[in-house]
Amino acid sequence: MVVTSVAPPGATGTSRAGRVAGPVVAFGAALALLLLLSGVHLTQGSADLGLGELVRAFLPGTSDAGEQTVAVMVASRVPRLFAALLVGLAVGVAGALLQSVARNPLAAPDTLAVNAGAYVAVVAVAAFGVTLPFALGGLVAFAGGLLAASLVLVVARGGAAGPARLVLAGSAVALALNSFTSVLLMLFQQNTVGLFAWGAGSTVQSGMAKVQFAAPLVAAGLLGMWLLAHRLDVLGLGDDTARVLGVDVRNTRVLSVLLAVMLAATAVTVAGPIGFVGLCGPVIARIVARRIPGMGPHALVVPFAGVVGALVVVAADVLLRMFVPKDLSIAVPTGVITSLAGAVLLVQLARKLRDGGPAAGDASRGTRGTVRSTRWTAAVGTVLGVALVAATVTALLLGDRMVLLGDVANWISGAAGRQVTFVLDQRWPRVLAALLGGAALALAGGIVQAVCRNPLAEPGLLGVTPGASLGAVAVVLLVPGVGIWPVMGVATLAALLTFALVTRLAARRGTASDRIVLVGVGVSAAAAALTTLTVVISSPWDTSLALTWLSGSTYGRSASQLLPVTIALLVAVPLALAGSRTLDLVSLDEDVPRVLGVPLDRARYAFLGLAAILTAAAACAVGALGFVGLVAPHAARALVGARHSRSLPVAAGLGALLVVVADTVGRTAIAPSQIAAGLVTAMIGAPYFVWLLRRTRG
Length: 698
What we know:
2 domains, ABC transporter involved in vitamin B12 uptake, BtuC, 698 residues, mainly alpha, 0% strand, 28 helices
């Protein structure tokens, strides 16, 4: 007997009703929660005002007290709330568009360096004393964000090279831009007062002017998104299918990126680069959409991502003012809370990443280098030694005051004059700090790249450098006048804890290189947010000391500060050379070391722990210097091959050479003013990194 089933009458109608009711319920619940949080937001502030008082203040027939309440709201609370809503909406939609274009859940204005590009453009204009109206300021931010995002998308093949490559490219480009921003903040402190905290994203407003100017731009962006929604739906089926169905794939992608960058740049102009809202909003929205019938089309899920983005910003603002004292709630940026939340989300997404992938494959090939003869290696070592001696002597001669070679000889023999002695006594610790710090960072970078099997990795991208910087900055700011050993101890402890956290979080089904890099990027973002929080709470109007650490500089170094990095190198270099054969095996793949009896995970932890100690010691000598641990090891492998018994010493020498030259240029180029060595290394490292990304993209 054959039994046939017939759908009951009205089943199709019920299904359609469910597909309509689902989105309505989702939007209604989100908007209701947003309304509730907005009400709580309006009650928070330095004045104790309940929601009932605020409502009565707007009713007809209010008293003078009511008029004062209205003034408080209009002057500070309402603009802050509307800025939070507008910025969250804009960045949430921008992140959803970028994720759709890149087909990558990790794409966002932060991970594509849009925020960093917009921020550096705004700071650069302010640094030179130029005051722009809101429209021109937004245009400058748009140009900076668009250039940064275009660069990231080009080198990461629009996200097709895998999530690790996309996030790594964006993080490295952002690292370079943030280094340049830090230097601008240091050199032009009077013109950029308050921009350090604003750089973490602050919803504090002095009126409604910015919000009123930005609202039409956000509305235009939403309209453009609505017009592109159907194309994005078709684009999600694949490029070939979209072309067959008549969609211009290239124009759709370009227009979507332009809209996303415009929305993100508008948000930066209003409230600064509020971190990771463009990641959190779309990810949460898509998780909800997968569980609700009818929420799949871009015409619904992208606006929903904007609503969730607004929820994230308002909730972060509410939590901030709930737990931070009232007198500090204005100084602490809202972006600190959103960055912490986004870092947690990024780590969770990274932990779900499958092993291997395009990025891993391309990157592992980049760590193998070329085979070089012993004679060639000896020649490279000789040339490098001569270059180091020449660079060291030149560094002693040049600076805000030039001295002669004979003056240096007299100073060494103790026969120099008072002025020459004073200059060289101040200069030689800086030169030695650059040499030792550069060598330590390069050695740490070589170890990290070998363990991760990725020539694009470095301590700064794995959370080790930001962790060490957080510890050092906290001690320097919270305990003024403390000696170098407590700073070194806390920086080392923070670096080791950060390293342990990264490896522990990345240890799901083994420590795959892609996963450990992505987890490191997330932990780095959290450490940077906590560093900003420490600075704005402890020293909101004197950020130069913290910026000196964060941008990388040898300014004010003394002989006592060189002891930690000296000891670290004396211990680490023999250990690294003794373990170079094991490091060669670890850098190959997952299987060969195990077949040959190498305890892979234990070896990884030991080498990365050594890299963490070197990074912390280098932070005490030269601060959080970027790109040295990226450029020097790769250049060493290109010169002498991939054998670590050769490449690690050459990398250390190249790192020392790079930093001492960068420090000399920084002390001489605009003397008597100085440029932090971090800017010079970023200027060298950023173009090199872009070339390296393009070369290893497969």
